[in-house]
TrEMBL record, chain A:
Underlying gene: nosZ
EC number(s) stated in the UniProt entry for this protein: 1.7.2.4
An example Gene Ontology molecular-function term: copper ion binding
UniProt keyword list: Copper, Metal-binding, Oxidoreductase, Signal
Name of the protein described by the UniProt record: Sec-dependent nitrous-oxide reductase
Location within or outside the cell: Cell envelope
PANTHER family named in the record: CYTOCHROME C OXIDASE SUBUNIT II, NITROUS-OXIDE REDUCTASE
The organism of origin for this protein: Gramella jeungdoensis
InterPro entries: Copper_CuA, Cupredoxin, N2O_reductase_N, Nitrous_oxide_Rdtase_Sec-dep, Nos_propeller, NosZ/Cyto_c_oxidase_sub2, WD40/YVTN_repeat-like_dom_sf
Automatic annotation (TrEMBL), chain B:
Family annotation (Pfam families): Cytochrom_C
Gene Ontology MF annotations: electron transfer activity; heme binding; metal ion binding
Keywords noted in UniProt: Heme, Iron, Metal-binding
Presence of the UniProt keyword Nucleotidyltransferase in the record: no
Domain Cytochrome c: residue ranges: 63-152
Record protein name field: C-type cytochrome
Keyword Methyltransferase: no
């Protein structure tokens, strides 16, 4: 009896102790996540994330920078759309970045970021991303996290099978989703078939400075080129593009482009075409496209119109292009880290197709052809097939790899991520996504060396996952731990725009290269003011140029007189600070543009058209110091033709005194 | 009896693993008396805090001073005039008021100086705008010091 009592006592004490243990291990019903999932994504205050994730902003046109595993948003890099916060596309320096053959375009739809590679591994120098609507490829410099180059792609439309890089960043490719007449001309739409062309563009990347240049454009049959990926390792030198609408329908594509049992993956031996071009091959054709470059030293972009392009027709280079039959309108086209398997995700197919690169070469060698399309040989399906994942799910879209022999594929219709094994094609695990996942991303998952710790699923539908915000709800991504046999959902987090694709990289590869400020002595801006003594105001007809400086916490000059109604006033403002994280902003009452947000050592310009006489203030828009509220100034505006002279002072003295 | 001990031991083990913060068990020491601020009375002995611990000055080097004047103009003149108080103190004759080490440390390590050095703290209280770090090199700071030596108080 005594013993029993003692035992009961012991159990009571123990259970008291257990239940008093706050957020202890027993996870009864506090949501789907165990506390260990929370710990896995918890990055303590002041600590850094392990990975950067560059997530496309979709119809925002931008590129968002998140930390993983926390899912915290660090920066939205303006790429194809204007950004009033950063003055991108508003200040005089960056307006040329958005110039195209159609003129200035303030928006695009950004899709597929890809990080530059050396020897098949992420080198963290640049991120490339495609503008889908008005075809362009942009390059973002990962020392400044700013867009430094945008090249327009002529003869293309719906620039979707882009912007993927080869394993030494020799090329970034841009493939057209919509075929169009080439050259463009006035013709009946119904005559599409056989007359429209699909341009696949190879843009060379300078290994030193990353400068982009269109090397050649392949004029393919008029299919829809949906996605692409480079060969790597043994298949380096090849590029693979999925196609749909090989039916060449021009209306009600959801029915008419879903007729064929198989469409194609186009396999392009770009090395062979490069050699052909280097030996003088190809046809120079007239064209018109913009090439925009931002110079870090002048802090200014220039836009140059190009008028010629080198066209290669598939029939010009026999043996360079083949079609791999792939079931049912394949979307994703993904190559495993070894370069052996090319995975085609037939959107409407019951199975996932893996082609073998080795077998593809053998089939080419043995001429195992199943006819041709527009002169391009079609390889026999059975001859190149490595295997298929049977009944994996519904609506496969994209596949990435963990570097440990596993592949992860998204299924849009059945809304899940499925883990399967390369070679055996067996399904290992499946986890639901909330909801309707599109792309997924493993850091380095599109390289020879993936960092297989997390997979990020980017969803197309959010519905009830967050607090409602009216009819439009946030876009969303989900993070899974993939270090175990089974995947584990760790985190939901909201994203900007529509997250089409992402590129992840270990933070250690790039964070030490991140620039802290721009050196004043290296500033070569046309209107730089390198010290307060050089600040001035210069009238040239009705154009007035204000050379202004800013430092904690005043402008020089801060009192300006002699401006007249009808003038065109340029504020060229230089931030004289030379320290980390001390930007200043500026805006002028009534300026029909955005603020400027100027980094230390940088110069930016906005224009102001004074419309009314009076004394009008300007101020610093970025809280810069304890005396930020004091950082302000006045401009006196006199009637047109007034005799008030131009003066510019600070503290009652001409700024160039002493 | 043995069982009781065991129960206690387990309970203690669980308790202390709960939250896992071993440090909390450390005895909380009685708060120390606030450290008295020792204000250096003689600024000409105060070397400040930073990379410069000792510097020996020779004859004024006019070439260095001229170079220093240019650096000063580019990086410092937005806040400092020689002749008068501006955003920061007027600097004519500063080498007669401060040690060369203090001046260079104030240029090279302003954040720590205004936080810890009593004289620099006093200046911040008076001028309110913290001295900006302009990321100068030691060499540039040395050139500026040489320039300061040439500008005497009026």
């Amino acid at each position: 009896m005594k013993t029993i009592f003692k035992s009961l006592f012991a159990i009571t004490v123990l259970s008291l102790v257990f239940s008093s243990c706050g957020n202890g291990g027993s996870d009864k019903k506090s949501g789907a996540l165990s506390s260990s999932a929370a710990e896995k994504v918890y990055v303590a205050p002041g600590e850094h994330d392990e990975f950067y994730a560059f997530v496309s902003g979709g119809f925002s046109g931008q590129l968002a920078v998140y930390g993983l595993p926390s899912g915290r948003l660090f920066k939205v890099i303006p790429v194809f759309s204007v950004d009033a916060e950063k003055a991108y596309g508003f200040n005089e320096e960056t307006k040329p970045m958005l110039n195209t053959s159609h003129g200035f375009i303030p928006w695009d739809d950004s899709h597929h970021p890809d990080i530059s590679q050396t020897a098949g591994e992420l080198d963290g120098r640049w991120v490339f991303i495609n503008g889908n609507n008005t075809p362009r490829i942009a390059k973002i410099d990962l020392t400044t996290f700013e867009t430094t180059e945008i090249i327009e792609i002529p003869n293309s439309a719906g620039n979707h099978s882009s912007s993927f890089v080869t394993e030494n960043t020799e090329y970034v490719v841009a493939g057209t989703r919509f075929s169009v007449p080439y050259p463009q001309k006035d013709m009946p739409i119904a005559e599409y078939k056989g007359n429209f062309k699909g341009a696949l563009t190879f843009i060379s990347v300078d290994p030193e400075d990353g400068g982009m240049d269109i090397k050649f454009q392949i004029m393919m049959p008029g299919f829809n080129y949906d996605l692409s990926h480079p060969g790597r390792g043994k298949s380096h030198g090849w590029f693979f593009f999925t196609t749909y609408n090989t039916e060449e329908a021009n209306s009600l594509l959801e029915v008419n482009a879903s007729q064929n049992d198989k469409d194609f993956i186009a396999a392009i031996n770009w090395k062979k075409i490069e050699e052909y071009v280097n030996n003088g091959g190809g046809t120079k054709a007239p064209t018109n496209y913009a090439h925009n470059v931002y110079d870090e030293h002048t802090h200014t972009a220039t836009s140059t119109m190009k008028d010629e392009i080198l066209i290669v027709n598939p029939s010009d280079v026999p043996g360079a292009i083949y079609f791999l039959p792939t079931p049912k309108s394949p979307h994703g086209c993904d190559v495993d880290p070894s370069g052996e398997y090319i995975i085609g995700s037939g959107k409407l197919a019951a199975e996932l197709t893996a082609h073998s690169f080795t077998k593809m070469l053998a089939a080419i060698e043995g001429e195992k052809f199943d006819g041709e399309a527009y002169g391009i040989p079609i390889l026999q399906y059975e001859e190149i097939l490595a295997g298929a994942v049977k009944q994996p799910g519904l609506g496969p879209l994209h596949t990435e790899f963990d570097g440990k022999g596993n592949a992860y594929t998204t299924f849009f219709i059945s809304s899940e991520v499925v883990k399967w094994k390369l070679g055996t094609w067996e399904v290992i695990d499946r986890k639901p996504t909330y909801y309707s996942v599109g792309h997924l991303m493993i850091p380095g998952g599109n390289s020879r060396k993936p960092f297989g710790k997390y997979v990020l699923a980017m969803n197309k539908i959010t519905k009830d996952r967050y607090l409602p915000t009216g009819p439009e709800v946030t876009q969303s991504a989900q993070l899974y731990d993939i270090t175990g046999e089974k995947m584990e959902l760790l985190l939901d987090f909201p994203t900007i725009g529509e997250p089409h694709y992402a590129a992840g990289i270990p933070a250690d590869i790039i964070k030490a290269n991140s620039k802290k400020f721009f050196k004043l002595e290296e500033n070569k801006h046309k209107y730089v003011t390198k010290s307060e003594a050089d600040a001035k105001v210069v009238r040239d007809g009705n154009e007035v140029h204000i050379y202004m400086t800013m430092i904690r916490s005043h402008f020089a000059p801060d009192n300006i007189e002699g401006i007249q109604v009808g003038d065109e006033v340029f504020f060229h403002v230089t931030n004289l600070e030379q320290d980390y994280d001390v930007p200043h902003g500026i805006s002028m009452i009534g300026a029909q543009t955005s603020e400027l947000l100027i980094m230390p050592g940088q110069t930016e310009t906005f224009k102001w058209y004074p419309k009314n006489v009076g004394v009008w203030p300007f101020y610093c828009t970025d809280f810069c110091s304890a005396l930020h509220q004091e950082m302000q100034g006045y401009v006196r505006v006199s009637p047109k033709g007034s005799s008030v002279p131009i003066t510019f002072t600070l503290d009652g003295d001409a700024v160039d005194a002493e | 009896m043995k069982l009781k001990v065991l129960v206690l031991a387990i309970a203690v083990a669980i308790m202390s693993s709960c939250g896992g913060d071993e440090k909390k068990k450390d005895k909380v020491e009685a708060p120390k008396e606030a450290e008295k601020e020792v204000v250096e009375l003689d600024p000409m002995k105060d070397k400040g805090i930073g990379p410069i611990s000792s510097i020996t000055l020779g004859e004024i080097d006019e070439a260095m001073a001229a170079e220093g004047k240019e650096v000063f103009k580019a990086k410092c003149s937005a806040c400092h005039k020689m002749s008068k108080r501006f955003v920061g103190p007027g600097l004519a004759g500063v080498t007669e008021r401060r040690t060369p080490e203090w001046i260079m440390n104030m240029i090279l390590n302003p954040e720590e100086m205004v936080e810890k050095n009593p004289a620099a703290k006093q200046l911040l209280a008076e001028y309110l705008s913290p001295m900006a770090n302009q990321s100068l090199t030691e060499k540039e700071a040395r050139l500026i010091l040489e320039y300061f030596r040439t500008v005497k108080a009026e």
